[in-house]
Design brief:
With about 350 residues, the protein is α/β, with parallel strands linked by helices. Helix content is about 35%, strand content about 30%. It has two domains: about 230 residues, Nucleotidyltransferase, domain 5 (2-Layer Sandwich); about 120 residues, 2-Layer Sandwich (Nucleotidyltransferase, domain 5). The two termini are about 20 Å apart.
């Protein structure tokens, strides 16, 4: 069952976080060191061909399952329990207010009744769950409840990929929720790169291959959520056009840092500028469509986040302090971890890290 409640249960067994995105599968396994320390035990990535995952759906099951098996072998993990994430586009979420006096059984019945108002297809076709957030500040005696629903085939396809790799799914999360958990750990660390006040608005900006996702957060509240189609794939296309390469050749050379000396100025810089301008427009739309007129921080994540000059360009075009997130801040690295590679790609592992944290966080 698609179970948000599983997010709030401790996982006694070793658990890997497995993030299946459009262009790669990423794996993170965490351990604890003493009471407050963290150890990055395993961390690895396996690329996917562009047509294997489309619009959040697994199109080529056998190839993706094979990539997961290669990733497990590469990482050296022995863990058999896995936390997976559904893309936000595959999940309908809604916060509702329900009477706090309801029993568990009554709450479940009421949740199904509420869900039928928001889900555009039959409840027989969905996996539905809920979690109680806490007392409702707007309605004394009531509670805020988060509903989450996904079509059964969306949940099944990811769990079946895990099963094909001899893994048991014990947590099925939402990608953006897992990412926010990893962000929360970083911001609470004594060496956090910034201080976020209770009233501060923070932009979590994930820049991936197929586009970027922007969330504006105030504490645990999501004030704004949007996705745009400009991302790393457009940079690959620009490389292919400029140097007369195929898409595959351009992607390979981009990943291997094997591009001509003219690349930073003739291709990368214009792309970074255009992307920063697009982000600024998205942020401006937030300001014009809500009562808010400023944000205090922009946190960059995703595979394209470390692009040279991107954080600086976004800061210049938005006027907002911008930094690239390291989800492994303050962690010790296990012997199996390629430190230099992980430090370079750390921002791409935000969701996988959040999934791996589900072993320890309620």
């Amino acid at each position: 069952m698609f179970s948000l409640s599983s997010l709030f249960q401790r996982q006694p067994e070793p658990l890997i976080g497995l993030d299946i995105s459009a262009t790669a599968v990423k794996l993170v396994e965490l351990g604890r060191h003493g009471q407050d320390g963290w150890v990055l035990e395993r961390c690895a990535m396996e690329p996917l061909s562009p047509d294997w995952v489309a619009d959040g759906s697994i199109v080529n099951f056998d190839e993706v399952a094979g990539a997961v098996r290669r990733l497990l072998a590469k990482s050296g993990t022995r863990a058999k329990h896995v936390a997976l994430a559904l893309p936000p586009s595959a999940v309908i979420t809604k916060k509702v207010i329900l009477p706090g006096s309801l029993s568990d059984a009554e709450m479940e019945i009421q949740v199904e009744s509420e869900a039928s108002q928001y889900i555009p297809f039959s409840l027989d076709e969905v996996q539905l769950d809920f979690c109680i957030i806490g007392p409702s500040p707007k309605s004394p005696g009531d509670v805020d409840v988060l509903l989450a629903a996904t079509r059964k085939e969306k949940a099944d396809e990811r769990q079946e990929v895990a099963e094909a790799a001899n893994l048991k799914t014990v947590v099925l999360d939402i990608g953006s929720f897992a990412a926010r958990l990893a962000v929360e750990r970083v911001l609470q660390h004594p060496n956090a790169p910034l201080h976020v006040g209770e009233a501060d608005l923070v932009v979590l900006l994930k820049v991936g291959a197929r586009g970027y996702a922007m969330q504006v957060l105030r504490g645990e509240e999501v004030l704004y959520d949007t996705e745009q189609s400009m991302g790393g794939a457009q940079l690959t296309q620009a490389i292919a056009r400029h140097y007369n390469l195929s898409q595959e050749e351009a992607e390979q050379k981009k990943r291997a840092d094997d591009l001509p000396a003219s690349y930073p100025t003739e291709v990368l810089a214009p792309f970074v500028k255009n992307l920063a301008q697009d982000v600024a427009r998205s942020l401006q739309f937030f300001f014009t469509s809500t009562p808010y007129h400023s944000v205090q921080h922009i946190l960059l994540s995703g595979g394209s986040a470390p692009l040279e000059g991107l954080a600086k360009a976004i800061q210049e075009h938005t006027g907002v302090a911008t930094l690239v997130l390291d989800p492994f801040l303050g962690m010790q690295f296990g012997a199996a971890v390629n430190k230099s590679r992980v430090r370079k790609d750390a921002a791409a592992y935000l969701t996988a890290c959040g999934l791996a944290l589900r072993r320890f966080y309620q």
